[in-house]
Each structure stands twice: as structure tokens, then as C-alpha cells.
Amino acid sequence: MPNKNKSMNIHLWLPQMFSFNGGIQIYSAFLFQALQNLYPDSRYEVFIKHEVETLPSITYLPQTRFHFTGGLPLKIRTPLFAAQIIGNSLIKKPDLVLATHLNFAIASLILKRLLGIPYWVVAHGIEAWNIKNRYLQTALMEADLILAVSSYTRDRLLKEQNLDPKKVTVLPNTFDAHRFQPAPKPAYLLAKHSLKPTQPVILTVARLSAGEQYKGYDRVLQAIPQIRQSIPDVHYVIVGEGSDRTRIEELIAELNLQDCVTLAGFVPDEKLCDYYNLCDVFAMPSQGEGFGIVYLEALACGKAVLGGNQDGAIDALCHGKLGVLVNPDDVQAIAQNLTQIIIKKHPNSLIYQPDSLRRLVIDTFGFEAFQSTLYQVFQTSHLYSPNISKI
């Protein structure tokens, strides 16, 4: 599949790639790895705004050069990062600038107007919706390509920004299938959280940020009393830390759920798979996800998954084929569906077939599928025009 003789000079502009496992960072890392697999003869200049060094967790080609501004004071980091990426591009004139955050699109536009350098940008989720900044709107309008992580994000962009549909394509999120695999409930976590092996566990993995309350964990909490009427020993575990924790603790106390809810806090990457395998159902009925990599990780562990029917979870769960989609504002529907899932009465029988779930999510969203889609994007892009002398 890869064209080994294709040589390009590509500049990648990333917020982060090594140090933080958020959705944009994970996407950036996989995009970088796929590019280097597909075009190993190309030259890569990688500019990372919020980091200071590489880490061995991500391999790279010897001709790759990294540039970091994470060591700069935060208040001056943005202008100096902008000066760095624009200055380097003016000198080295890349064939393509690929930015994994929309906030970098304005700098890309400046380069295009000065030197005609094409640029692609990635649209993830809430940062791509309801954009009012006219400079960013212009930068999106003049982008050579926008890679949306889901059809939901693409559709919102097209509707809100009146973009050319041919310039907005979908390159879905992917995940590490080797890291997330089915396994028995870990004994050490059962002991740590005082759970019985047969006790039904609902899990959510999300940042508890006051600015990201759309994740839906509060709706699951509100549904727990109704679920307990049918499943008295149900337990809800929330993995994640953030500024919304105090509000969640108050809601738990208000609902008198202290005995059946565990706030596990921050969990390191190497233990995250264990928490997926601890649960019987993964639930995140969000209404603001651009995609939701956590859904893929839970599915790869063979778990039944419940998501919201108003955001990118629709893509991640393949319109309900791979899981259960509910109205994220309907607490009763959340409770009813979670109860059905746990007592194995839900009509979607696929959610009770862990091996099939894992195979389907890998086939649909695994790294090979991601890399293949990226290859097709390059094949159909203007970068393959014979008028581009460097290629």
C-alpha cells in the first residue's frame, strides 16, 4: 500500500504527543506514526507546543526533527510557538503543513497566503463547533483539507461554517488494540474497591472537568437509584480527576449513593485496561464528544457500551450496531437501558459477544484501518498533482 518512493517535506504542528493521553494527543501520535509508516522517505519537522522532549513510547524515523516550546512560560508560549512554526516554514517551505488542532489554522493561512504552502487541519469536537472567530472561519474556508474525526463533527462543520464538502473528509479516531484486551476482573481491583467478583459494575472513564460536564457521568449517577431497584448491589466506578470532582461528590451525597459509587481518581495508562475489565458495562452518555476513544477501548475489552445519541458516540458505536445509544438527557432511559444490559435482556445481542465486539471494533477502527484511510486521503489529495515539483 505505501508508496515507498514518495518523498515529501511535511511539517506537523501538534499541541502534545508524548506526555498526556487526551484524545487530541492520542490522535496526533497515531497520525504521526501512520505518516511515517506510509512515507518513510519523507522528511518530518514536528513542532510540539506543550512538551519539552521525546519519549521512547513513540518511535520515529532518524530524519525526523522535533521542536519543543513546552519549557517556555505559558503566558508567552503561544506567540513564540507561532513565531517558530511560521519562521521555520518560511525558511524550509514544506510541501504540507498538517495541524492537529484548529487553533493552528490561522498561522497556516498566513503561510499559504505568503508562499502558497498547502495546509490540512484536524477537527476533533467542541473546538470545531459554534466557531465565531472570523479569522479562524477564514482559515477553515481556505484550508486545503479538514480531517474530521467523525461524521458528526464533519456534519456540524459543514452546517455551521458553509464549507466545501469536498474539503472535509473523515479520518476516525483509532486506538491501541494491543493495550486493550478482554481479561477476567482483576482480583487486586476487586479487593481495592471492596467488590465481589459477581457484583455488577458500571464504569465511566472521563476527565472530571467543570468545562466538560457534557460527559454524562452525573446523569448516570442520577440513574443509579432506579437501577438499584432491580439490581441492589450495582456499583458505579468513575475513573478520572478534575475540577468537577467536588460537584460530583456533593451529588453523590445528595442522592445517598456513598455506598455504591467509587471515584477512583487518576488511573495511570498501564492500569486503565484493568478498569475496563473490572466493569460489566461502560457508560458515557455524553452530548459533546467529537468521537470518544474510550468507547473503542472498552469495546476492545469486549464490554457492553452505552453512549449518547447526540454526538460523536454515534460514529464510535456505528449508529448503535456496536453498543447502545440513548438520549443523554433522559435519566429514565439511561437507567432502563443499563438495567437491561446488566440483566442481559437488551435486544442488541452483539453486546454480549465480547470476541465479536473486539473483532468488529478492530476491523472498523484499528490502526490498520486508520492508516489505510489516511493513505486514501493522500492518494486523492492535490499533493499528488504532477505540478508539485518536489513530489
Structure description:
The chain has 391 residues and is of the alpha/beta class. It folds into 2 domains: 184 residues, Rossmann fold; 176 residues, Glycogen Phosphorylase B (Rossmann fold, 3-Layer(aba) Sandwich). Helix content is 40%, strand content 15%. The protein is built from 14 helices and 13 strands. The strands form 2 sheets. A 7-stranded parallel β-sheet has the order 3-2-1-4-5-6-7, with helices on both faces. A 6-stranded parallel β-sheet has the order 10-9-8-11-12-13, sandwiched between helices. Helix 11 links the parallel strand 12 and strand 13. The chain is elongated and about 65 Å long. The two termini are 17 Å apart.
Key features of this structure:
391 residues, alpha/beta, Rossmann fold, six-stranded parallel beta sheet, 14 helices, elongated, disordered C terminus
